[in-house]
Amino acid sequence: MALEEGAASVLRTSAGLKAGERVLIVADPERMSVGRAFFYAAAALGCDPVLSLIRTREAAGREPPDLLAAALLEADVVLLATVHSLTHTHARRAANRAGARVVSMPGVTEEALEGGALTADHGALQQTMRRLQRRLRAADEVHVATPSGADFTVSTRGREWNFSDTGVAGRKGDVTTLPAGEIFVAPLEETAEGRLVADTFFQEPLHAPATALLAEGYATKVVGAEAAVLEMNRGGKEGRNLGKLGVGLNPRAHATAPLPEAEKALGAIHVVFGDSVPYGGRVSCGVRVDAILTGATIDVDGKPLLEKGRLAP
Asked: Of 33, 54, 128, 191, which has the highest C-beta tally within 10 A?
């Protein structure tokens, strides 16, 4: 029952489902229980849904069967509950062009649907992001501190924060990916200074905090995260560039969960070393190293944004 309640929450607050709409749920064998939950929840909300089981794709971005791709074009709402992401497929894009609202949930788990990140009120999350967007529009300096000992600053002058991860696909042709709830920016190159302390994840789950000393935008020394160092070194100096700073806002997400849920958790800081082009920066080196910090206090131009993992008033 908890699964169906979580599915109903997604359908109401993320997809904006209305009674009588044509709903198509796509699942693979590993996510069949999640697919069934969406099927029954959509039926309870007054729809006559269709649940399609497909073979598990080999990797993200692999196309679904042609027969399913054709069915996607006829749907009002599409739920993608699969191991590997179908977000970046021609079939998904064609469905959006045909007017479908698509909610993609790659790697979705029963736990996330039973009371985790997917059950957040996505409408409220969108309102929070709109409020923060006004505050961050002309932000210059961001200071991050955590109970684990992180204490660093970056400049975001001239860089645009991204607020698109709302989890809401309420209009015809919209697409969103769940779990949702991260805002992010590519800090200005060569501005990161201080000490970063990852306490849950640094290229791999951590058993103890790992530290990266930051100077002139780069991680000059990393202690306690061997996998991160090995991956950074593949990109040379640019592999140590602090390329992304993300702030989690989802109160239902857990910072100790696997990525991508961890980066969406309220109070979590998501730092990416290496490439920054995907986030609005200038560095492209073929390397991405993720780090998660929790319980953050964030000041933007001297004014609090988060205080010990909670939104400042």
From this structure: 128
